[in-house]
Amino acid sequence: AQTVTQSQPEMSVQEAETVTLSCTYDTSESNYYLFWYKQPPSRQMILVIRQEAYKQQNATENRFSVNFQKAAKSFSLKISDSQLGDTAMYFCAFMKQASWGKLQFGAGTQVVVTP
Amino acid sequence: SQTIHQWPATLVQPVGSPLSLECTVEGTSNPNLYWYRQAAGRGLQLLFYSVGIGQISSEVPQNLSASRPQDRQFILSSKKLLLSDSGFYLCAWGQGVLDSGNTIYFGEGSWLTVV
């Protein structure tokens, strides 16, 4: 079974600064997908970024980028130029190949952006 | 475009009462459908998933059941609620294939408090 670990329960960052969230996972699979979702106070789960394990290039979406280290089984999220609207719980999630889209989530990291 | 809705948004039910949470998806056909539960301060746990009408797979043993009476309708039920059933329930959908690595999209969630 796969496990997803987010070791930082809470992170605080000032506006315009950069914050990096860590995520490690344990799997024996060679092909899989990784995701970061954010959950703002509204509780709506919103996709931030996704990465295919077979791609060496790190995914980027505007101010959000990942550092995917397959050998180390690490998938960190960097938020650049943090904005107040980035305040949310961030979840790392793992999807095994050929699994009908089932996601395995980490426990989450609460990000608080301060003025 | 595709949309997903679930209701009710908030529910307070006494112990031993029945439960019905409903979810519908629009703008797509034959989606994979999922029910997740989020306990307070924790990540999401997959409860059920469905790859077609009448096809339900349970991920964890529990007091709940799911049904899919129509292609884009997914229902979470219980005959007798327990206090431990309290939590935030999220319906989700993804493209209906075994392996696409596609994004999973979530509904707005339903808060269930069992008293």
Outline of the structure:
With 115 residues, chain A is an all-beta fold. Helix content of chain A is 0%, strand content 53%.
What does this structure look like?
The complex is a heterodimer of chains A (115) and B (115). Chain A has 115 residues and is mainly β. Chain A has strands spanning 3-5, 10-14, 19-21, 24-26, 32-39, 46-52, 60-61, 64-69, 74-79, 88-96, 103-105, 109-114. In chain A, the strands form three sheets. In chain A, strands 2, 5, 6, 10, 11 and 12 form a six-stranded mixed β-sheet that branches. In chain A, a hairpin with a 2-residue loop joins strand 7 and strand 8 (64-69). Chain A is globular and about 45 Å long. Chain B is mainly β and 115 residues long. Classes of the chains: A mainly beta (115), B mainly beta (115). The interface between A and B is medium-sized, with 26 and 26 residues.
The helix fraction of chain A, in percent, is: under 10%
- Overall shape of chain B: it is globular
* N-to-C order of helices and strands of chain B: EEEEEEEEEEE
Structural category of chain A: mainly beta
Order of helices and strands of chain A: EEEEEEEEEEEE
Gyration radius from CA atoms of chain A, angstroms: 14 Å
Q: How many H/I helices of chain B? A: 0
Q: What portion of the residues of chain A fall into strands of 2 or more residues? A: over 45%
